[in-house]
Design brief:
GO terms for molecular function: ATP binding; ATP hydrolysis activity. By secondary structure, the chain is an alpha/beta fold. Helices cover 35% and strands 29% of the residues. It has helices at 40-47, 67-71, 88-98, 103-116, 132-144, 162-177, 189-195, 213-220, 260-270, 283-291; strands spanning 2-11, 14-24, 29-33, 55-60, 63-64, 73-76, 150-154, 182-185, 198-203, 206-211, 224-230, 243-247, 250-255, 272-279.
Amino acid sequence: MLEIDDLRKRFKEKTALDGVSFTLRPGEIFGFVGANGAGKTTTMRIIMGVLEPDSGEVRYQGRPLTPDDRRTFGYMPEERGLYQKMRVAEQIEYFGRLHGLGAKAARRATAELIERLGLAERRNDAIEALSLGNQQRVQLAVALVHRPAVLILDEPFSGLDPLAVDTLAGVLKEQAASGVPVIFSSHQLDLVERLSDSVGIISAGRMIASGTVAELKAREGRKRLKVVVSGARPGWADGLPGQVTEAGDRQVLIAEDGDGQAILRAALQAGRVEHFGWQEPTLAELFREVVA
């Protein structure tokens, strides 16, 4: 259990954090969402001891977080901290030794991670010769090499191609399935929605919404009716609530209120109904609404 309780932090005249609180449970993936400068990185740096809060506390297993606790954490900062001249395998192994692994254990963990993260063909390449995506994979390996008790990742998906995203997402799920709590920040809200057990939305240093995606959608309480009709005559939806857009020979009606049965009858009379159903807002839509 990792508890972030009422964190506050100012940098001169700027309030970076204004009472941020949330809890991370074993095996939980927590998606941390916010615009640039909202406070995500500051929160993560305080958890890792890079910054000190002005007030508030971080607790682990029910007690104040200690430097010894932090040594068991895995951290992937947004600004990558790799040694550019070192080769991939020796880099990962080196960080494993820094975390206290013996030489044999560090080599074994390095070999496993290189294989899992698709770096086998790059194991002897210098970091500076790698693409951004492969450098991200190495950075993740560095965060995982000592089998961390908690995993904290700041924008880990930034700049990755779809295959690398899938690989990284799979690793995060594996870590959570083994009981490791995971915090990650990302601007890719569809990815956050897909991966996260719970989500925190932060704006201007304040946590303005948190909970599971389902809880956030239920709290919003808004659903939209989507109707797709092919071969409909023009103006079939005149007088109905919502907006109609065209997609080829199909017309799509999106309505947030109105009599669903009346809309369905009108659609059936207009043409062939290919889709009729209620949709919950996406996390991206929720984010825009609560931030606005």
